[in-house]
Amino acid sequence: MTIAQTTTPTLRIPAVNRPIAIIGSVAVAVAVNLVVWLLGKAAGGSFEVVKNGATTQVGVGTVISSSAVPLLVGLTLAALISYRWAGVLRVAQIVGGVLAVATIGLTVSADFDTTTTVALSVMHLVLAPVLVIGLEAMRRGLSGD
Q: Is 122 helix (H, G, I), strand (E, B) or coil?
């Protein structure tokens, strides 16, 4: 008699070096957020906000820079500190994830239309798992997992 065993599929996070973790995470975040922006545009989002009489447009360049720069700075800082203290990668996963979600408040408080607000909020949410997974891949690269 045999006993059937079931396994739950798990996310396999590869072990990669620091530069690959940083570049890969930034590339994934930018690509996914551009897709979210395109979907938001297709759904009728204006991606415009009027502040002090001036209209500001959230375009492709803004999406790219707003996705890439914070992630690039945060991951690079964590990678540099990890040369001295590898535990910073766990701390950065928590802090970075919380900051990515918390900054949704900035989007919600702006005077965007609903579709734009939802799309921009989703872009913030995209950064959290990308950051956590990128840092985990970096951590595994350091520990040889």
A: helix
